[in-house]
What we know:
Layout: H1 2-6, H2 11-20, H3 38-51, H4 53-66, H5 73-96
Helix pairs in contact: 3-5, 4-5
Amino acid sequence: MVAEKAGSKPASTYLRELALERAAKQRKGYKPAPVTDHKALAQVLALLGQHKLVNAFKQSEQKIEDGVQPADDETILLLRECRDLLSKIHRLLVRALGGSGQ
């Protein structure tokens, strides 16, 4: 019954209008929290790119796998965790600055 009277409006909007005896204001859509300091985030992202740490970790892993550089399992795990962490930080910074972060 309420749905029929509401027509194309959501039932909650129709009921709110009935209760307040006036048309309800349309609510604004969701907006993500604003990034207050794009410049600082961009600088951090630039530093990550300049140092090329992710590639350095990948190269170290490759040397270990090829047998050029000796390492135990703990060292290999630590290298992979560091590489993955830096990659995640990079993606999050790109996303915070409006990029896709993929």
